[in-house]
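Revision sheet: C-alpha cells.
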Amino acid sequence: MKIFLFYTGLITLAVSLTHGFFTEQSVVHTLLFHPLVILFSFILIAYGSRKIAPF
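Predicted:
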C-alpha cells in the first residue's frame, strides 16, 4: 500500500508541475489549486517512503 501511495504522489506531482505548459490556467487555479496539490503530493510521497511503522 505504501508503494502505491509513493508512486501516486510522484505521478500527481509530475502532472501538477507539467500540465500548465499545455493548457490555459486561471489565476485561481495557478495560485490556489497547484500549491494544495503539490503539498498533498509531498505528503503522499513522505508517507509512502517512510520505513517505521506508525504504532
